[in-house]
C-alpha cells in the first residue's frame, strides 16, 4: 500500500482507510470541556458519529412508535414486519432462553439492545451515513456494561448472597482446585464477558468499515488516479466491495443477534446457578 | 554480488500484524469445528435445527471473541 | 490494519479506539436510556396489548364455536327426545288401538254369543210352549175323540168324571207303552 501511495504522485494519492475516520472533528458543543480528562475532552461534543447515532436512534423511535400506534388485530404489511421483528426477539431470544416468566422481565432490555445494535450497525452500509454507530467504543461499552449489570442484578435478585459464591466457587470441585478455579471463574465471568461483548461488536464493525473503505478507496484510486490497465483491477475491487457490503449486512444482523442472545445467555446462567 | 548485504526484498510494517494472523488461526479452526459439528448434528436430527443454530451462534460468539481480542491487543500493547 | 498502523506511525498521532471519549459515553448512554424507555413504556406494552387482544379474540372465537356446538348438541338432544316421545306416543296409540280393537272384538263376540244364546233360549222356550200347547190341545182332543169313539162303541154315556179318569188312565197306559216300546 505504501508503495502504491508513494508511486501515485499524480492528481490524487491513494487514501487508505485510517482509524482517524472514527474520530472526526467535534463540530458542536466543543466548548464546555473537562480540563483534567483526556486533553480537554468536550462534555457534550457532537461529531459525525454522534450525529449518525442520533439519526439511527430517531429512525428507530419513529419506526416503532409510529408503527405501533394503530395496531390492528389483523396486521397490515408494515405492522406484521414490526411484529415479526419484535416477535423474533421475544420468542427467539427472550422466551427461548429465559422462559416466559423471566423472559418477560428482561424483554425490554433485550429488545432495546437488539434494535439499538441493529440500527447502529446498519448505518455502516447505508449510503451517506457510511459509518456504523457501534464502531466507536461508546455504544458497545455502554451496552456491555448494561448487560453486565443486568446479569449481576438477575443473579443477586434470584440467589441473594449466594450468587457471587456460586459463580466464583462452583460446587463439586475439590477444595484445593479452588486456588485455580476461582481466579479463572472471576476472569471469565466478571472480566472477559463485558470485554468480549464490547470488543466483538466494536471490532466487527470497525474492521468492516475499514475493509469497505479499503475496497472503495482502491476502486476510486484505480479508476480515476491510475486509469489505463488498472481499470480492470478497479472493476475487481468494486465487485469485491459490493460483495463485502452484502457480507456487512449479514454481519450487522448477526452481531445484533449475538449481542442480544449473549446477554440472554448470561442472564440465564446467572438465574440458573443452582449449586 | 559485490555487496553481501544486497536487499532482495523488503517488507516493512508492524510485526503485530503477523501476530494477529497467528492469533486468528485458532478461532478460525474453532469456528470451523463449531459450524461443521452443527451441520453434522442437523444432518442427523433435522428437527433440532432451530435449537442447534442458536447454540452454534453462541459457540461461534465465544470462539470468535479470541480473534477480536487479538485485534484489540494491537491498540493496548503497542 | 497494516495501512492504519503505517499511517499512524507516519502521522505520529494515534487515536486509540479502545479509549472512549467522554461525550461518546454520554451520548451513547442517553440514546440507550431513551430507547429503553420507549421500548419499555410505549412499544412493548402496545404490542403486548395487541397480543392479548388477539389471544382474547382467538379464545373468544373458540368459545363462540364451543357455544354454537353446545347449542347444536342441545338442539339435537331435544329433537331426539321429541322424536323418541313421538315414537313412544305413536306406539302407545297403536297399542291402545290394538287393545281397543281386541276389546271391541271381544265385546262383539260376547254380545253375539249372548244374542245367539238368548235367541236359542227363546226358540227353545217357544218350542217348549208350542209343544206344551200342542200336547195339551192334543191331549184334550184325543180324549174327546176317544170318548166319542168309545161312546159310539159302547153306546152308553158316561159321566164326565169317570170318562176323564178313563182317559187319563188310557193316556198313562199309552205313555207307558210308548216308553217300554
Structural description of this entry:
The complex is a heterotrimer of chains A (275), B (78) and C (181). Chain A has seven helices and two strands. Chain A is an all-alpha fold. Chain A has one domain (25-271). Chain A is globular, with a radius of gyration of 23 Å. The relative contact order of chain A is 0.13. Residues 1-9 of chain A have low confidence and may be disordered. Chain B has 78 residues and is mainly α. Chain B has a single domain (14-77), classed as F1F0 ATP synthase subunit C (F1FO ATP Synthase, Up-down Bundle), CATH 1.20.20. Chain B has helices at residues 15-44, 49-77. The mean pLDDT of chain B is 84. Chain C has 181 residues and is mainly alpha-helical. Helices cover 91% and strands 0% of the residues of chain C. Chain C is built from three helices and no strands. In chain C, helix 2 packs across helix 3. Chain C is rod-shaped. Chain C starts with a helix and ends with a helix. Chain B: The chain crosses the membrane at residues 20-40, 52-77. Chain B: GO terms for molecular function: lipid binding; proton-transporting ATP synthase activity, rotational mechanism. Chain B: It is found in: Cell membrane. Chain B: Residues 19-77 form the V-ATPase proteolipid subunit C-like domain.
